[in-house]
Amino acid sequence: MSTSQSHPSNATVLTQMQAIIAGIEKHFPNGTFTLGNTAYTTATLTQALQGLANALSDLSAAHAHVKQAGLTLTEMQTKVGPLVRNCKSFILAAFGTSPLTLADFGMLPTKARTPLTTEQKAGAVAKSRATRKARGTMGPKKRLTVKGDVTSVTITPVTSPAATSPSATPAAPASTTSA
Fold it and tell me: How far is residue 138's CA from residue 158's CA, in Å, rounded to a whole number?
């Protein structure tokens, strides 16, 4: 069983076991072996190896079954999940004030929200203000008070020139200077 992998897969080990069993039955049909201070005949050795091969086959089949069961579960959760959520919402709406009736459905009433303490409220306000200051955000009314400062602006009036077509104006020749 020498492979280049450090941990061969179960399928590889199963194939190897089947090959070893076939080789022992072919080359040593009536042999006797002493392996690890224990004497084996061809029949007892192949029986032990076949037990391992059967266990690997059973494991492979179980893995396939688990994978199929997982796919079936996912499919059913996708189909029935919304129905379960709607059913729970209906039950809570119908019996939300009756904990004993909800217990018949295996549900608990929704917990009442605990109000914040004064210290928690003050901490939340301080954190909110610090966040707004760090981000430079402001409310809509504060934004209306922001005006830009403009200094040294020259306003040049735009006058419409006489109707001249762009092709009627000759292009100025480029001046060339020789050195």
Answer: 38
